Amino acid sequence: MKVAIVMGSQSDWPVMKNAVTVLETLGIEYKTMVVSAHRTPKRLYEFAENADKEYSVIIAGAGGAAHLPGMTAALTWLPVIGVPVMSKALKGMDSLLSIVQMPKGVAVATQGIGEAGAFNAGLMASQILATHDITLQGKLKAWRAQQSESVLWEVE
Ligand code: RP5
């Protein structure tokens, strides 16, 4: 497995499944797991401390008091990409600030709130892996070219 996708709750899946889209398009292996920083703290430690034996990049999504990405980053040297999931009460602003405001010395690559952020997390993970994979580089360039071509010049 190359990419681990962890989320704080099963309820995050409708958003986090967008992270899978690019990975599947580019043929990148991944595994999805529910790991809650608050409800399953021992699982978080178990996962993060052993993550570098199985994975190269971690995508971590959570909502509200979203401590999963930051705590994961604290426990592993692997790059952690954070996805703020929309919360009911504060529409994801709480999630975003919880993830993005890391203390100096522990880094999380925070994406935007919600589905676009989750999609871009998958894209960012692919780009990180492509730095050491020439075949994947080719696939990524082709995907980007196709995206550019799909944008119409004229407004319909
Ligand atoms: C967070 O609390 C999860 O990441 C989720 O976004 C939010 C709500 O979780 P549930 O109460 O739906 O399980 O930990």
UniProtKB/TrEMBL annotation:
Known EC number: 5.4.99.18
Binding site for substrate: S9, D12, R39
UniProt KW Isomerase keyword: yes
Example of a GO MF term: lyase activity
Biological process annotations from GO: 'de novo' IMP biosynthetic process
Reaction catalysed by this enzyme: 5-carboxyamino-1-(5-phospho-D-ribosyl)imidazole + H(+) = 5-amino-1-(5-phospho-D-ribosyl)imidazole-4-carboxylate
Enzyme class: isomerase
Record Pfam families: AIRC
The entry's keywords: Isomerase, Lyase, Purine biosynthesis
Alphabetized InterPro entries for the sequence: PurE_ClassI (IPR033747), PurE_dom (IPR000031), PurE_prokaryotes (IPR024694)
Residues in PurE domain copies: 1-151
Pathway: Purine metabolism; IMP biosynthesis via de novo pathway; 5-amino-1-(5-phospho-D-ribosyl)imidazole-4-carboxylate from 5-amino-1-(5-phospho-D-ribosyl)imidazole (N5-CAIR route): step 2/2
Membrane-spanning segments: none
Family to which this protein belongs: Belongs to the AIR carboxylase family. Class I subfamily.
Role, per record: Catalyzes the conversion of N5-carboxyaminoimidazole ribonucleotide (N5-CAIR) to 4-carboxy-5-aminoimidazole ribonucleotide (CAIR).
Name of the protein this chain belongs to: N5-carboxyaminoimidazole ribonucleotide mutase
Lineage of the species this protein comes from: Bacteria, Pseudomonadati, Pseudomonadota, Gammaproteobacteria, Alteromonadales
